[in-house]
Design a protein that fits this description.
Length: 69
Amino acid sequence: MALYRIQEHTNKVAPKLVVRRQQMSQLNSQIQGACFDLDNAIKTVDQMKTAQSSLERIKKILNGENCEF
């Protein structure tokens, strides 16, 4: 009788666990995508910081000011 109850419980819970696992997999994919986007945004901001001096020199050249080379 006990083994029957265990089997009954397993058959009842297993489909819910499968659905939950699929949901967790989808959420994991979304989180990984968000992390990828965030890493790219951070790299872009860092590159913009390093490009600032070059952009200022270009601005001076376009404005006809003396530039330091």
